[in-house]
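Incident review: delayed structure delivery

Summary: a single-chain prediction request sat in the queue longer than the usual turnaround. Root cause was a stuck worker, restarted by the on-call engineer. No data loss occurred. The affected request and its eventual output are reproduced below so the record is complete for anyone auditing the incident later.

Affected input:
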Amino acid sequence: MKVSMLAPYISRRAGGLMDCVRNLSRFLENEHEIHVDIIGVEDEFSPEDRGLWGNSSIHLVASKHAAFRYAPELSRKLSSLTPNLLHTHGIWTYLSVAAVRWSKSNGGVTPRPYMVSTHGMLDPWALHNSRWKKIMAGFAFERRHLENAACIHAINQAEAAAIRAFGLKNPVCVIPNGVEVGASNATNRTPPWAAHAASDRKVLLYLGRLHPKKGLSILLRGWKKAFKYEKDWILVIAGWDQGGHRRELEQLTRELKIADSVQFTGPLFGEARDTAYQNADAFVLPSLSEGQPLVVLEAWSHARPVLMTQECNLPEGFENEAAIWMSATVEGAAGALEKLFALEKSALEEMGRRGRDLAIGNFSWSEIASQMFAVYQWVLGRSAPPNCMLFD
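Output delivered after worker restart:
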């Protein structure tokens, strides 16, 4: 089987989507009889981040419009690769147009099959963001792209509900994101905040894009309220700045007079990323909207307790006492932080162990790749529909 995956970028610009595509493609190739080509739009980080993909078959195309990802050579590239199935990751860009054109370009017979992973981009908050642009895009091309997909991939039941709320009646497969689970206690490397933080202070880590939807301004205001009761922690904010949001957050820390307890490290990748998880005492994700955040799964895989909002769409974290619930408000953030600060070391470690068990049991990339392979087989007419499929 030959599958081509379309991704907006193969670099850090794609955020957690990059890791999802990278790991899914790798496990599909390593554990199933399948060849995967990944096609992405070239950007300024592509040369540096290409190394993260190892021996994966990567094809970069030039874009003539950064926001829309207009890449005229994309159709020619798809034709040359001759995949049996196309898998589009993400929506609202020229990749959607290219997928439909590829599907229809086989001489007027039955369209070639493609499937779409929406990666949370049909969630209510995501639809409201740049709403008018998405309305115009929907009329112009996106609804056609979605309605003609052989299958739409949702990462959880909440996303499946959002797909149905958008009016789509396609078959939907519900398959979560995955995570690689390695050693949970390899703390021999120096963390990126070591030069600026006292070694006896506990670390609450945020790792991800610096973007308004991540709720970091709410977290900082909650930190101000809760921190007056607890001076033994620091907040480390690690991630790639999008649209100058880091400057806004740094200014807010100065206005709130909490700059001495908050540190910004910039983006972390590879070993530096693992080192950050391993040396943190807890992890926080105060997002206003998520599909299913890989960073929470990574924190659990490193046995770290998590603070997160319900918008992270990982209710099993609360159900299994691997996470502390926080509402996406200043008071909610402050209350969750106070609960965290009150926990003894043994309680933090026990919460982390429960998270690691959850990551191992529910989010193994090997199992997830097997489920996706079964969906591919069904889409190509080679097998019965797997149990992860929804038809109503």
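Verification: The first helix runs from residue 16 to 31.
Action items: add queue-age alerting; document worker restart procedure.
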